[in-house]
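hey so i finally got around to running both of the ones u sent me last week. sorry it took forever, my laptop kept dying halfway thru and i had to restart like 3 times lol. anyway pasting them below in the order u listed, first the sequence line then the structure token line for each. didnt double check formatting much so if smth looks off just lmk and ill redo it

first one:
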Amino acid sequence: MKIGLASDHGGFELKQLITQRLIKLDYTIVDFGNDTFDSADDYPDYVIPLAKSVASGEVERGIAVCGSGVGASIAANKVTGVRAALINDHFAAHQGVEDDNMNVICLGGRITGAETAMELTLAFLNAKFSFGERHVRRLRKADPTGTKLI
């Protein structure tokens, strides 16, 4: 699976750790930056290119990390075709994919520990959309523009 990752300074350390661990698990990684720690960087500069890559299919899923995960989530969801959420628990990490076809997980580099982040990331990456009738119906209702959601 080809995975995109992006972070600002608040998520830089956690993104680096997730990247290293996913490479060891044979995931193909596309790093959208930042590639060096810069305390003055801005999450949209990295998260929006990641989100566009997910929406276009260049990468299958995305992982966006900022200090709290909130800004990354807001930025990613501005891109048509992206369904991003700030995730803090195991259930939401897989349920967001299974029921809502989430394709970008957002994490808080200042609030999520390394082991928890990996647990959430792997739950997200291993989950599959259910294609349940009610879930498809809800996704269609959530997108009045008719953008491909499934």
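and the second one:
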Amino acid sequence: MDELENIQSKIYVIRGQRVMFDFDLAKIYQVETKYLKRQVRRNIERFEGDDFMFEVSPDEILRCQKVTSSWGGSRYDAFAFTEIGVSMLSSVLNSKVAIQANRSIMRAFVAYRNLAELPLAATYLDLRKQIEDIRQEMNDILADQNDINESTRAQLDAISTALAELQANRPDNKPRRPIGFIKPKDDED
């Protein structure tokens, strides 16, 4: 089962398809990547169409995992093989290791598909319930906050009205007494 998990960890989703990169497949098949690519190019008619294989830009690879060459960047675009593209590789690579590896890879794709689909429905329903609960809590919080805002607004309006009334009732013609210890010169008489 460890081998199956190892292979599953090398399955990525790019452009909406589950794929494996040529360099990962070369390691599994125990061949050099350039040999695998050479065999694919010699038999390119078996891999026509994006549903079998497509070239991947270095940016797409970097989004999945960190891959660099010894000089700091990838030298060539990698091939990304879909599940049926990997099964087609078994007809191109005719070694005992390739046959065994291909069987393991096919099992990994099937297990990956089952893993992705079975718990998905239960997870979806659980997430949907959690989202509805959060939505209800947020609505309650916003309603409470709206009540507080209306109450605060009413209190501020009352304070504003009271200050306006106080200012209107203040006699403007009477001079104010200065604050402090110095007597004004007018009062000395």
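quick thing i noticed on the 2nd:
Strands lie at 12-14, 17-21, 53-56, 78-82.
anyway thats it, ttyl
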